[in-house]
Amino acid sequence: MIACLGSQYAGWKLSHKADDGSFFALGSGPARALARREPLFEKLAYVDRAERATLVLESAVAPPAPVVERSRKIAEFRRRN
Predict the structure, then answer these.
(1) SS3 of 19, please?
(2) Where residue 8 falls among pLDDT bands split at 50, 70, 90?
(3) What is d(CA 27, CA 12) in angstroms, rounded to the nearest whole number?
C-alpha cells in the first residue's frame, strides 16, 4: 500500500502561471516520494532516499522550465535532508 500511495498515485500538484498561459499537471513516481509535498507523507510516516528519481507528469503538454527547475530543487533538497 505504501508503494502505491507514496509513489504511484499522482498526487503532487505542479502548476505555473505565465503571461502566455498556465500549466497544471499531477506528478507521480519516486521523485514525488522524495519531495514529500503532501500531508499524506506525514500520515504514512514515510521517507524515501535515493540518488536519482523519476517524476511522471500527467499532462498533455511538456512542462515549462520553471516547473522543471522547481520540482528538481524540491526533490534534491529532500534527498539531502
Answers:
(1) coil
(2) confident
(3) 5
